[in-house]
Amino acid sequence: MFENFNQIFTSFLVIMNPFTSLVYLLGISRDFTPDEKARAINSATFIAGATLVAFLLLGPIILSLLGVSMSSFQVAGGIVLLVISIRFMLGNRLSASDQGSKDSRIMIIGVPLITGPGVLTTTMIMVGSYGYLQSLAGALAALSIVWLTLKLSDRIGRLLGERGLEISSRIMGLLLAAIAVEFLKRGVLDIVSSGA
Predict the structure, then answer these.
(1) Residue 31: which H helix or E strand, with range?
(2) First CA to last CA across the chain, in angstroms?
(3) Measured between alpha carbons, how far is 65 from 126 in angstroms, rounded to an integer?
(4) How far apart are CA 80 and CA 83, in angstroms?
(5) CA distances (Å), 146 to each of 16, 73, 91, 134, 190, in order?
(6) pLDDT, tens only, 17-57
(7) Burial annotation 76-113 (CB, 10 A radius, 16+ → b, else e)
(8) Surface-to-core class of residue 166, CB atoms within 10 Å of its CB (0-12 exposed, 13-18 middle, 19+ buried)
(9) Chain CA centroid to CA 110, Å
(10) pLDDT higher than 80, residue 63
(11) Domain ranges of the chain
(12) CA-CA distance, 161 to 163, in Å (whole number)?
């Protein structure tokens, strides 16, 4: 039943790119107490997870109502992921400064940093390819790794340093580009084979 779990889990983890959220968290939590930081991490992860699960359940219904085929969505999704991957590789990310209240800064970690357009796109593609159960299991497993990464943010930040975090984020961007190309290839092949 879970023969594709590793592929699904890896795809979600790469697209969630925990290093981007980690860098942002370190920047916005300088004025947080330890308790506030712990609550912020839990709240951000919950927001990200709730958004992901809602889209996982409702996304296919929305596609059906719009009359959009999964093949077309794979092609469009591949293009979106490719653009996001290029941004990661170029080092583009949200500024950690001047982001308003603590609550608004926390929400930005949940959506769009953890669960952004790339994750929502991948959710739809995974559901169409592997079904609800495997997609949900893989997504939640990846989200748990992101949560753990954020919980250990201070230690990881000290260990890797700013340059190490930047390099790690760019490597994740390169992996994401490879996944995006695979989605594009599958979508185009499906469209050609179906004669659509």
Answers:
(1) none
(2) 31
(3) 19
(4) 5
(5) 8, 26, 19, 18, 33
(6) 998 899 889 888 888 999 999 999 999 999 999 999 999 99
(7) bbbebbbebbeebbeeebeebeebeeeeebbbbbbbbb
(8) middle
(9) 10
(10) yes
(11) 5-194
(12) 6
Structure tokens belonging to residue 142: 């990846």
Neighbours of 162 (CB within 10 A): 10
- For residue 12, which of 136, 174, 164 has the smallest C-alpha distance? 136
Separation CA 157–CA 161 (nearest Å) = 5
Structure tokens at 76: 């469009």
* DSSP per-residue letters across 96-155: SSS--SHHHHHHHIIIIIIS-HHHHHHHHHHHHHH-HHHHHHHHHHHHHHHHHHHHTHHH
